[in-house]
Structures are given as C-alpha cells and as structure tokens.
C-alpha cells in the first residue's frame, strides 16, 4: 500500500466509494500535495482494516482558486488508538490551517466521529500519526469537496447610501486609505491629496497661507481604539476549574490563556446587545505536573501530562438577538 494512503477523484461517484484513483497529486519530501478540483477521498493506509505502526502522513489540499474553500467530511467508520487522560497523544488524525498553523482539531479513539471541517483559506492540512504500539481499526476516511462559491452582490455607490448604511460600511475599514478607496474608487488618491492641500485664511485685508500637514495620524488613532476594544488578551485560569477535574491536583495550578476581552462601544448602530465574542478558537496543549491519590496507597501518583486549554485567537463584537 502507498504510504501516503489513497486519493479518489469521485466527482460522479457516491460518498466513500471503494473504487479509488489518484488525480492532481504532487509529492514532496515531507507531504503529499493534492490539487483539489472536485470531490475526493483521503484515508488511512489499509482502511477499513488496521493501519500500520510508526506512520506519519501529511496531506496538503490546495483548491484551484484563492477564493475557494475546502470542506472535510469524516466517514462514520472511525477508530484510532484511544486517548490518554483525554488527550490524543499516540495515534491521531489532525486538521490544521497552513497559514498561522492553527489546529482545527485532533481526534483519536472511536467514541465520537469528528464533525465537518471547513478551511478558512484555499488550503488545509491533514496529518495522520501512529506510534509503535496498539494500532487500531478501521482508521479513518475523509471526503473532501469544494464549497460552492457565489458571486459577490453588487455594491451600491457610496453617494447613494443613506447615512446609517454608509456609517456602518465606513466603520468596517482599517485605514483611511481604505475609506477613501471605498468612497471614490476612481479618484481616491486625488481626494487624499486634496485633504492636505494648503488653504487660505482671510483676516481683514490680509491673506494668510496655511499649509496642512499630516500631524494627526488617523490610522494610528483608530488602531489605538482597536487595541483597547474587543481583542484577545491574557487571562489566568484555574486548571481544576477549567478541566472540571476534582480528582487531581495540577502544578502550576493556573495557566495563562488568550481570551476575548474589552468593550464593544463601536458595535453596529442598530444593535441592542453587543458582546465581545471569539471568532477563531484554538485548542492548545500545555505540559504540567499532575498529582493523584493512588488507590489504597499512601503516596501520590506524579505524572507529567498534557492538558488541553481553549485559546481565543480572534475576537469580534457580535450583535446578540434581542430575544436571546
């Protein structure tokens, strides 16, 4: 069997068809790169039978266009070596965003089939790892597909929008340049220069020439507000409370995590209840000392273990429904 598993081009075949072929594949030294133009399948070697030991396989799926997104759907038949203390340490399949290295999920065992995963960009990584002990079956099988892309709706010219709609649109831009491009796409640079042209001030019969300079950086003013608004920031959490573990003691007992915080004063004008909420969440593993009482013993069991903690990587002010 191919170490990198099997790939199926199955645009006109049913989900998880046993007939497989390899299409649009480029192998590199460290990973297998697949050009995604339709539906296909990735699976652990020998699926649905026991996968081999000591195996590391990485697939990089690349959609044909930058605007495309890739969806992953797991076959209900799923089984890898069980987790230890709730952490997939030994045999697992992992899905990762190539840009930024954010892990969308890591799975093992057989009690729960992973849910669908969708890429943020036009690429996504799938990593399969097995160690030298206790291989399981059936392994895993993942169907990948391109999400349908819809054309962007036509944007009404800025001068035709009412004050409320224009205010909300302008508030979403990060720089003054973006604002000017939105207002006047064909002449935004001219408008930018006009803002800082010299002006004449009349005092009595004299004319004073005043040259405007870019002393005030509006981009910087906006960035300062953003830094103190709804953003990820450090919070300390108690491991026993966070993990809901009453049977163990951890050292350190608290760890720092990134969680959303700050106000939402600049939320949409028509929002009744605006809250700072996470829009990108990652599960990260931290190695700590865990102490547990031995059954019938006088000594404590001491082990180094990985504990999963939720980190908020991106935050946004979200308008909650008034009826919630």
UniProtKB/TrEMBL annotation:
GO MF terms listed in the record are:
growth factor activity; platelet-derived growth factor receptor binding
Xref: Pfam families: CUB (PF00431), PDGF (PF00341)
User: Record's SUPFAM superfamilies?
Assistant: Cystine-knot cytokines, Spermadhesin, CUB domain
Q: What is its main location?
A: secreted
GO CC terms for this protein? Answer: extracellular space; membrane
Q: Which CDD domains match?
A: CUB (cd00041), PDGF (cd00135)
Sorted alphabetically, the keyword list is:
Cleavage on pair of basic residues, Developmental protein, Disulfide bond, Glycoprotein, Growth factor, Mitogen, Secreted, Signal
Please state every residue range assigned to the domain named Platelet-derived growth factor (PDGF) family profile.
230-322
A GO BP entry = positive regulation of phosphatidylinositol 3-kinase/protein kinase B signal transduction
Segments forming domain CUB: 21-147
The cellular location(s) given in this protein's UniProt record come to: Secreted
Give the family, as the similarity comment puts it. Answer: Belongs to the PDGF/VEGF growth factor family.
Q: What is this protein called?
A: Platelet-derived growth factor C
């Amino acid at each position: 069997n191919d170490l990198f598993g099997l790939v199926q081009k199955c645009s006109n075949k049913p989900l998880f068809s046993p007939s497989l072929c390899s299409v649009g594949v480029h192998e590199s030294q460290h990973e297998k790169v697949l050009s995604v133009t339709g539906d296909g399948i990735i699976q652990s070697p020998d699926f649905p039978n026991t996968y081999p030991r000591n195996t590391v396989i990485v697939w990089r799926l690349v959609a044909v266009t930058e605007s495309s997104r890739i969806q992953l759907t797991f076959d209900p038949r799923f089984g890898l070596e069980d987790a230890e203390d709730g952490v997939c340490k030994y045999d697992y399949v992992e899905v990762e965003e190539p840009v930024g290295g954010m892990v969308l999920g890591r799975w093992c065992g057989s009690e729960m089939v992973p849910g669908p995963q969708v890429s943020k960009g036009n690429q996504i990584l799938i990593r399969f790892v097995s160690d030298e002990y206790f291989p399981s079956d059936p392994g895993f099988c993942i169907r990948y597909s391109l999400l349908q892309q819809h054309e962007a709706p036509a944007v009404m010219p800025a001068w035709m929008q009412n004050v409320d709609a224009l205010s909300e649109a302008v508030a979403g831009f990060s720089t003054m340049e973006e604002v000017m491009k939105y207002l006047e796409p064909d002449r935004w640079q001219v408008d930018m220069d006009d803002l800082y042209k010299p002006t004449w001030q009349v005092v009595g019969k004299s004319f004073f020439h005043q040259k405007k300079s870019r002393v005030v950086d509006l981009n910087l003013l906006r960035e300062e507000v953003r830094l103190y608004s709804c953003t990820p920031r450090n919070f300390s959490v108690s491991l026993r409370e966070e993990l809901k573990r009453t049977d163990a003691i951890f050292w350190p007992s608290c760890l720092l995590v990134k969680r959303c915080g700050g106000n939402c004063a600049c939320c949409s004008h028509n929002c009744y209840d605006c809250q700072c909420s996470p829009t990108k969440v990652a599960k990260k593993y931290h190695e700590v000392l865990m102490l547990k009482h031995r059954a019938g013993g006088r000594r404590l069991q001491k082990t180094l273990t990985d504990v999963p903690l939720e980190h908020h990587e991106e935050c946004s002010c979200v308008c909650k429904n008034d009826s919630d």
